[in-house]
Amino acid sequence: MDPVEALREIAFWLEREQAETYRVRAFRSAAGIVAAMPADEVASRARGGSLRRVKGIGERTYTVIREAVDGGVPAYLGELRERAAAPLAEGGEGIRGQLRGDLHAHSDWSDGGSPLAEMAEAARWLGREYQALTDHSPSLTIAHGLDAERLRRQIDAVAEANASPDVEGFRLLTGIEVDILEDGALDQTPELLGRLDVVVASVHSKLRSESGPMTRRMLAAVEDPHTDVLGHCTGRLLRGGRGPRPESQFDAERVFAACAEAGVAVEINSRPERQDPPDRLIQTALDAGCLFSIDSDAHAPGQLDFLQYGAARAEANGVPAERIVTTWPLEDLLDWTGRRR
Predict the structure, then answer these.
(1) Could you tell me which residues come within 8 angstroms of residue 336 by beta carbon, excluding any fewer than 6 positions away?
(2) Which residue, of 84, 118, 137, is where some domain finishes?
C-alpha cells in the first residue's frame, strides 16, 4: 500500500472519530514528509530503520510506513477501518443514501486544516457528486476570512482543480460562508457573490442580540438575492472547546417564512457540537414550507462524513428528501442557486 495514502487515510478516520487534533496532525505531517521523498528512498529507509530518525516521523507513523511499503494494509489502518464500518449516527439511512453533495466546508484558505485539493479528494472518495468550498468572509478575522482579492484567487484555484482529468463525475463548487453584518448586509462585494456557485449566509457576531434586531438582521440577509443557504441559524454550541453557547433569539416564524418565500434553504448543520437548528425549529421551518440543506460544516477531510448526523436528524424530523437541496442533481442545484442572481 502507498504509505502516503495510508497515513492520510488514518488521519481521515481519526478526524471522523473526533480524535484529538495532535493525533491527526501527526499522521498528516508524516504524510507530507513522506510525499516529499522519492518512493524508493522511503522504502529503503523504512526497511533499514533510518526513517525513524527523520524529524516528524514517530514510532507509530514509522510502523504504518514500514507495514505499507512491505505490501500490506497497516494494522492500525485496518483497526480504524473496522471501527468505521459502524455508522456515526443511528437512523437516517434513507436520506443519507440520497445525498449527492454538501454546501458548507472550509479549507486552509480560512480556518480549515487542509488544502482545498485534499478536501475535494476526500469528498470524491466519499462518493459525493459535488462539494462546495465555503471559506469565511473578511470580517471574521479570527478565521482568516477571505478579502476580495483572496476570494478571486480561490475562484481561480477551484477552476484549476476542476480542470483535472482525475475529477470526472465530481465538481468542486465555488462558494463562501459570508458573515451577516449587524445591519443585515453580506460581508463581501455583490460582484463577487454573484460569481459564486453557492452562498451560505451566517451570523457570527453579536449572537446575544435581542430578538428584534437579530430578526431584522436575518431577514435582510434572507432577502439579499445572493443568499442561498441560511447557515447554523441559532449559533448554538452544545459542547466543545468554545461551548456551550445558548441559542440566538429571533422570530423563527418570520425568518423561516421569508426563507420559504425567497427559496433560501435552512441549513441542517451536521456538526455534532452544533446540531443546529434544534428539532423544534426544524419543525417550524418544515411547517413554513422551507427547503433544507444538510451540510457538514467540515474543517477537515474526515469531518465531511458528519453528514450522517444531519441525515439522521432530518429523517427523525420527517423532512422529505425532495425538500433537501443536497439530494438534488448538480444541474438542478445550480439552477436553484442561480435563480435570483
Answers:
(1) 228, 263, 325, 328
(2) 84
Per-residue pLDDT reduced to its tens digit, 23-37: 999 999 999 999 999
d(CA 232, CA 274): 8
| Cβ(132)–Cβ(175) below 8 Å | yes
Over residues 227-253, the mean pLDDT reads 93
The answer to whether the Cα torsion of 65, 69, 73, 75 is positive or negative is negative
Chain centre distance of CA 32: 22
Residue 222 CB contacts under 8 Å (≥ 6 apart), including other chains: 201, 230, 255, 258, 259, 262, 264
State whether 73 and 129 are in the same domain: no
pLDDT of residue 242: 75
Asked whether 121 and 146 are in contact (CB, 8 A), the reply is: no
Residues in the chain: 341
Among 84, 108, 130, the domain-final residue is 84
Burial class (CB in 10 A: 0-12, 13-18, 19+), 202: buried
Regarding whether 210 and 312 lie in a shared domain, the answer is: yes
pTM of the model: 0.95
Looking at the DSSP bridge assignments, the partners of residue 199 are 176
Q: How far apart, in whole angstroms, are the C-alpha atoms of residue 304 and residue 299?
A: 8
Alpha-carbon distance 23 to 93, whole Å? 30
Check which CATH number belongs to the domain holding 320 and give it: 3.20.20.140
User: What are the E-state strand segments in 180-290?
Assistant: 198-202, 229-230, 265-269
Q: What is the residue range of 186's domain? A: 93-337
